[in-house]
Amino acid sequence: MKILLAEDDQRLGQLIYDYLLPESEIVDIVSTGFNIVEKIQEKSYDILILDMMLPKKNGIDICRELRRNGIDIAILFITALNNQNDKIKAFESGADDYLIKPFDFAELLVRVKALLRRETKVKSSNLMWHDLILMPEEKLVIYNQDQINLTPTEFKILQIFLTTPNKVFSPESIIGKLWDIDTTPTDSTLRTHIKSLRKKLEEKGLEKNFIETVYGMGYRLKPKSEKLFTAENKQKSVKRKKADNQKNIDKSDTKIIETKEDKLKQLIEQMWLDNQDSIKQDCQNLSDYIQGKNDNLDIDKAIRIAHNFVGFLGSIGFEEASKIAKKIENIFKDNRDNLYSQDIKHTLMNLLNNLQNNLFSQDRVINQENHDDKHLNIFNDDKIEILVIDDDLKLANNLIMFIDNPQVNFVFVHSIDRGIEYIKEKDYHVVILETQWKKKNPNLLIKMFNLLEEKEEITKTIIYSKNDNLDNRLYCSKYPISAFLSKDNSLEILWKNIKSVLLDNQKESQSSYNYDILIIDDDIRFTEVLKEKLIINQLPVNIHIISDSEIFLEEIKKIKPQLIILDLQMPKLNGLDICKIIKKDSLLKSIPIIFLTGNLESHIITQFVEAGADDFISKSKIDLELYPRIMTHLKRVDLSFGIT
């Protein structure tokens, strides 16, 4: 089958394309309503899958235009608009079916195939009577392989009879079905058309009064003779045998269906992985717009982002997130001129936060790292032993499901005294500890910390606690913990910190890991001296240098540095401009930037801060300040982003 998909949401469009392509000869995608009629006329598609809300021209107008032009392609609407009026508009415009977003992909395929079967039936068996064949697409009527030339009105009348061959049609019902003929016939003109049609059919050899008059009722096709019915019964018998054979084939297709479901599951999971960053960016864009910080977004674009969320997120299993997105879309629509209201802003921001929590919460997120980290290459392929001491039973299940890594072996204990026993019996790479026993069993908690302090070189400790207040943080800071995390943080952040701790262990034992840093400075002599000094001081870095500031962006994407050192004054593009560009890029802004300059006057420092710089050092003091500051920023990169 040949499918034209009109969908402006690229994410959902790609998912539909990937799902339908194995079942189709062609699947073409357009993202606007522009020139769809022309595209269908150029290429003989079997079905149009049409979004109702498209840029440039909406789906209803497109559907009406197609029907006005006599294009009878099957049309399936897919839309998040689910009220009764929208459905009525769709069907009145000429749609054949209507599917509400979010939808099940298997149902989409079933509906597409059902529409195509319906079209096939209309084009074949229902339009045959005796040896008379009417071909709607080709506008041909053939009897015994001989073509019969009919006027458009005669053709339409014959098509009405052949579509329902056993029905008696009143003159009024026939006239009602001829509404799209330029001149609507009256009773007398209808009789004239039928008389002319009979004559043309008889001239080609059909029975006299092939279209017979049923007095007092109207017209119908003349019933078939017994001889013809016998022949037809034989054909039905053959069809039944074919149907029985098909049932046997269908049984063997069960495994194929299961495979399809597995493939769909994989497809949806991969689609989520591929689009997490763009969805986060769309959420950020909406947040900035609601707070008045995004001049590049207007109300219509904001509505479209929310609208597209409804269909895409619901279709990949995020039903609750889809409902939240629908609420956001409706508030945007209902308050086009009232978004400055603090109440509206507050409501929208709460909904947007709920949406992001639903999408990226610890038990729903599918993180790319989970798929790439099947083997961490830490401690070769040895098992990584992690002890979790927490009475929260859900945490155990969530951690196992979230990390799902064959190299990681979790051990869970739900009391502080059992945790002490486990640490005495065995060494663990990481201990994840809840501190809620501070009030219940303070002595046992102190004993636990003392024991972990003894094993500091082998075992690293991460606090993951409900009790995130200053007192608890100060209490824990007395002991050698590697990180303190509130349980408000997701499991993704916890996992990144675990990896960071494991990397620290590896570097302490092997000291072979090097960071990539990029130096951007047009003074080649200075950068060579700086490079030698970094090497002499044995910093664990790979040094990359560029002197042409205009190529910095492509070099950053190629090198993927963990830190950038910038000069302030450079030809073509100065350091401040480069810093601003990096800090405005959602993928690059987390890279620390240190300015090296000979000018540290107060107004220059202000410019550094406004541009988003992380640090600034005088070139005259690099031997004293640069090396420790580089390592401080690189350590922060580890803690924030884990091992990449």
Account of the 3D structure:
The protein is an alpha/beta fold and 644 residues long. The protein has 5 domains: 2-122, Rossmann fold; 131-223, Winged helix-like DNA-binding domain superfamily/Winged helix DNA-binding domain (Arc Repressor Mutant, subunit A); 276-360, Four Helix Bundle (Hemerythrin (Met), subunit A), CATH 1.20.120; 368-506, Response regulator (Rossmann fold, 3-Layer(aba) Sandwich), CATH 3.40.50.2300; 515-641, Rossmann fold, CATH 3.40.50.2300. The chain has 25 helices and 21 strands. The strands form 5 sheets. A 5-stranded parallel beta sheet has the order 2-1-3-4-5, with helices on both faces. The longest helix has 37 residues, at 254-290. It is elongated, with a radius of gyration of 36 Å.
Task: Name its key features.
elongated; 5-stranded parallel beta sheet; Arc Repressor Mutant, subunit A; Four Helix Bundle (Hemerythrin (Met), subunit A); alpha/beta; 21 strands; 5 domains; 644 residues; Rossmann fold
In short:
With 644 residues, the protein is α/β, with parallel strands linked by helices. It is 53% helix and 15% strand. The relative contact order is 0.05.
